[in-house]
């Protein structure tokens, strides 16, 4: 079985050949304005516009924890807006990350990656603003993606 490839670099600019699917975690309240989404929005306007429209029309679609929206931004690049955090603040119910929702969203990502014959690229999803623990997210990625034959690269910033 393969493993997750860890690299330093920019997750919005995967340098591998073929179709690339960039997965990231979004909140369930329609907020887009901090963290990795800023890098996505600097590169492409479509993921933010699609997410905001999806949230706006949530009474008539599947928007909610565990849902995933796929947005094509270039001929060979897609972005997966994965709803994996409840709200945006740590409070009495703990941190915003929802591991079950990330797992469900990654299952959708696996299906789309297989359909597109795509590799998947991400930061340590759910572990930034969502407050998650990588030791709980990494096994979800291994089970939902890597064990299904999907190539996954995780990007860390810095030198």
Describe the protein.
- With 159 residues, the chain is of the alpha/beta class.
- The chain is 30% helix and 25% strand.
- The chain contains four helices and six strands.
- It has helices at residues 36-43, 46-56, 99-116, 134-144, and strands spanning 5-8, 19-27, 68-74, 77-85, 118-122, 152-156.
- A six-stranded mixed sheet has the order 1-6-5-2-4-3, with helices on both faces.
How far apart the termini lie comes to 29 Å
Q: How would you describe the oligomerization state of the chains in this entry? A: single chain
Give helix and strand order, one letter per element, not per position: EEHHEEHEHE
C-alpha Rg, in Å? 14 Å
In which range does the helix fraction lie? 25-40%
Task: Outline the low-pLDDT stretches.
Answer: none
Number of helices: 4
Class of secondary structure makeup: alpha/beta
Strand order of the largest sheet: 1-6-5-2-4-3
In percent terms, what proportion of residues is strand? 15-25%
What spatial form do the alpha-carbon principal axes imply?
globular
Average pLDDT, to the nearest integer?
A: 95
Count of DSSP E strands?
6
Largest sheet: 6 strands, mixed
């Amino acid at each position: 079985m393969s493993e997750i490839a860890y690299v330093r670099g920019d997750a919005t600019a995967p340098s591998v050949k073929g179709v690339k699917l960039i997965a990231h975690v979004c909140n369930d309240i329609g907020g887009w304005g901090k963290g990795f989404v800023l890098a996505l929005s600097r590169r492409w306007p479509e993921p933010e516009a699609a997410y905001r429209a999806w949230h706006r029309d949530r009474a008539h679609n599947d928007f909610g924890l565990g849902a995933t929206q796929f947005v094509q931004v270039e001929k060979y690049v897609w972005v997966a807006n994965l709803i994996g955090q409840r709200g945006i603040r740590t409070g009495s119910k703990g941190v915003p990350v929802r591991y079950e929702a990330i797992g469900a969203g990654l299952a959708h990502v696996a299906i789309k990656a297989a359909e597109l014959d795509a590799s998947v690229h991400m930061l340590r999803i759910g572990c930034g603003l969502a407050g998650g623990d990588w030791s709980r997210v990494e096994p979800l990625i291994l089970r939902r993606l890597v064990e299904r034959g999907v190539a996954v690269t995780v990007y860390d910033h810095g030198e």
